[in-house]
Structure formats: structure tokens, C-alpha cells
Amino acid sequence: MSAPVFLADGTSLTSVASGSTYVLDGAEGRHAAVVQRKRVGERVDVVDGAGTRLRCVVAGTEGSQVRLTVEETVTEAAPGVVLTLVQALAKGDRDELAVEAAVETGVDAVVPWQAERSVVVWRGDRAARSRARWVATVRSAVKQSRRAWVPAVGDAVTTPQLAARVRDVVGAGGVALVLHEEATTPLAEAPTPEPARDGAGAPELLVVVGPEGGISDGEVRALTDAGARAVRLGPHVLRTSTAGPVAVALLSERLGRWG
After folding, report:
1. Cβ contact 188:250 at 8 Å
2. Ribosomal RNA small subunit methyltransferase E PUA-like domain: from which residue to which, for each copy (predicted)?
3. pTM of this structure
4. Tell me: the pLDDT tens digits for 38-71?
5. Are residues 30 and 48 in the same domain?
6. For the chain, what is the domain count?
7. In 3-state terms, what secondary structure has residue 142?
8. Does pLDDT of 199 surpass 60?
9. Residue 205, in any domain of the structure
């Protein structure tokens, strides 16, 4: 069984050497020591969210701190293509369910979209609280899926702002795909960007998913006029909580991430 993952909040782990001692404290330390009751000799990983992973063994616990012996420091390369899910706000917790599963299937960033038919509206304090829930959902999914990279959560965008983002992505050599049930091009035949060799300046692959009521014709026109391509996910119409993660999984396979 793979080792559980804990996050080193806001701290780079690149300088932590094999054989050294690392102290996991704060909320993550408490969770490991008090909630999970980690014991001496058990294996855990600590990641910094930016690709560095410490493979560790528990050396001891004291209160809400866990003392770890670092056996290996591993650096995981940045993605050659940044896979971004633009998820329309949805009622209930369907948008958060989509974000959670998308992180587990390999997405690199998520962007909340205030679509025309979104029942939920993010404004003022609610916007801040709702985005904070998405951030917490991403962090939890990162730990569940044992990832070393924490996907970024953008600010909510309107359709004009999203169209501008699509224009920038396509102009920089990326690709934007809009999932639409009436599209004739299958997702499997949609183009993907050429990956960056060293992770620097990686192009973006933007996947846009509408709310439960679907994407309006005006939104489709605005996004395709900006350079996006409308694609069909498959023969069935999926919920907004399902469509994004399925698309991310299929694209991750095409990008060679699941080889």
C-alpha cells in the first residue's frame, strides 16, 4: 500500500536532504499524530505541492508533532502540458465533486466559471468562502491521490473573462476545448498541445464544462469565436460533476500520464 501524503504548507522541500530529520507539525502534524496515530516505523510522504516529495519513516511523535527520518527526496517534473478544468458553478456540491475527481484524475489547475445558466452565484463574501472550499477540496484530493503537485485554484471568471483567457491560451500555442453535447468532433480527435520538454513555458490545455442547464448558444459562440473548439465527450450526456473528470482522465491518457 502506498504511503499516506501530508502537505508542507508554504514550505519548499527542495533543500531537505536524505538522512535528515523533518518535523511535521501544525494541522498536518496533528492529523498524523492525533487523528491517524502514526507510530514509529510507519512510512509517510510529505510533499510541498510544487513537485518535491520526501519519502519518510516515522521516528517519533510528541503531541501534535511527528518527527520523520527522510529516506529519499524525490523531485517530480512539472507537466509538459498544463491541463486546466474550467468548471461552471453548479447547485448543491456538484461543482466541488467535479473538482475533487478531476484532481484525483490528474488536472493541474481549476477555474470556477460563473456561467449564464449557473444557479449558484459567487459574490462578495460568498465568493471568498466558496473558493476557499474549492481550495480545501483540492488539498484533500491531492492527499487522497498521493500527488506531489497541488493544482492551483483560480478566481471565478465571467464568460467575457473566460473568452479572453481562451484567446490568450490559443495565442500562446495552447488548446481550448468546450464540452458540448451537440458538437460533432469527438474528444478523442481533438488536438492537444505539443508538450514542453523541460516543463518551462508549458502550453495549456483548457477544458470547459458547463452547468447542469448546459452551455448557452451565446456562450458557445463567444468561446469558439475566441479560438476554442467544441467537442463531444461521448454518446451519453453526463452530469456536470462527471463530465470534467471523465474528460481529464481521457486527456491524461492521451498526454501519456497514465502509461
Report:
1. yes
2. 24-70
3. 0.93
4. 999 999 999 999 999 999 999 999 988 999 999 9
5. yes
6. 2
7. helix
8. no
9. yes
